[in-house]
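This part of the workshop introduces the protein records we will be handling. The structure tokens are whole numbers drawn from a learned vocabulary of backbone shapes. The record below serves as our worked example for the rest of this section.

===
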Amino acid sequence: MEKSEIQIIVGKKIKELRIQKGITQVELVGRMRGEIDPTNISRMESGKTNITIYQLYRLSEGLEIPMKDFLDFELPEKQI
């Protein structure tokens, strides 16, 4: 699996969790004390950036969820 594929999967998970909480990207930035640009949230959710552990931590604080929730997914089966 390519790095970009994992970034897309994690990004979709971030977006899914944010939407479940009923929070916009701008509101999420506010909950993160505004130390991140809203366009960065968009890039994370679309898988266009490699998210750091610290960014996941900050997202988890903003969404008030455990960090492990971002990684709670199954990887697609490898095709031979």
